[in-house]
């Protein structure tokens, strides 16, 4: 008669220990360290979504700058003044972008195309990059690219620019 009662007590103890262990697991794995494609390290609280930028031995709260006006596709007369220089190197497309317009740029899209020696297209892809670039300023950018460009002819261009007028 005591055997079923002992089994129930043991099962209850194991269940309680399992729940406590799971709770401790969640608390001990609450934070995640991740890096951006630009090499910036962030600590993210998986429970609340808060994040911090890690610089050396300090943590600074990460707050994304948000314009008071939503970004819109810039008119051609302004977006044509956004130019840049860049190249593909070891799987990364990197360079700088100059905002010669009167708008503040918040996002730009580039199209990369690699052609074979005979002129046929090996691959073509579009990449969007968020940026905070005021008028008449230059900023560096870098992002990872998938696809082999070795022995191919790379061409690229800015296809879309989003931002907001001051």
**Average pLDDT number:** 85
Low-confidence stretches: none
CATH superfamily of the largest domain: Lipoprotein YajI-like
End-to-end separation: 82 Å
Share of residues in helices: 10-25%
Q: What's this model, at a glance?
A:
The chain is α+β, with helices and mostly antiparallel strands and 166 residues long. The protein has helices at 2-28, 76-79; strands at 31-35, 41-45, 51-55, 58-61, 72-73, 82-89, 92-99, 104-115, 121-133, 137-144, 153-164. It has 2 domains: 30-63, no CATH class; 72-164, Immunoglobulin-like (Sandwich).
What does this structure look like?
There is one protein chain. The chain is an alpha+beta fold. It folds into two domains: 34 residues, no CATH class; 93 residues, Sandwich (Immunoglobulin-like). 19% of the residues lie in helices and 49% in strands. The protein contains two helices and eleven strands. A four-stranded antiparallel beta sheet has the order 1-2-3-4, with no helix packed on it. A four-stranded antiparallel beta sheet has the order 5-11-8-9, with no helix packed on it. It has a three-stranded antiparallel beta sheet with strand order 6-7-10, with no helix packed on it. The model has no long low-confidence stretch (mean pLDDT 85).
């Amino acid at each position: 008669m005591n055997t079923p009662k002992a089994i129930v007590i043991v099962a209850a103890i194991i269940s309680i220990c399992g729940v406590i262990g799971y709770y401790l697991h969640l608390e001990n794995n609450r934070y995640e360290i991740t890096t951006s494609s630009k090499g910036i390290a962030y600590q993210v609280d998986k429970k609340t979504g808060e994040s911090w930028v890690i610089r050396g031995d300090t943590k600074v709260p990460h707050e994304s700058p948000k314009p008071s006006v939503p970004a819109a596709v810039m008119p051609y007369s302004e977006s044509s003044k956004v130019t840049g220089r860049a190249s593909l190197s070891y799987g990364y497309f990197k360079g700088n972008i100059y905002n010669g317009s009167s708008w503040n740029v918040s996002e730009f899209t580039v199209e990369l195309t690699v052609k074979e020696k005979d002129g046929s297209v090996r691959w073509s892809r579009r990449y969007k990059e968020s940026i905070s670039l005021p008028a008449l300023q230059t900023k560096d950018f870098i992002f990872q690219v998938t696809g082999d460009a070795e022995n191919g002819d790379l061409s690229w261009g800015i296809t879309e620019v989003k931002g907001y007028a001051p």
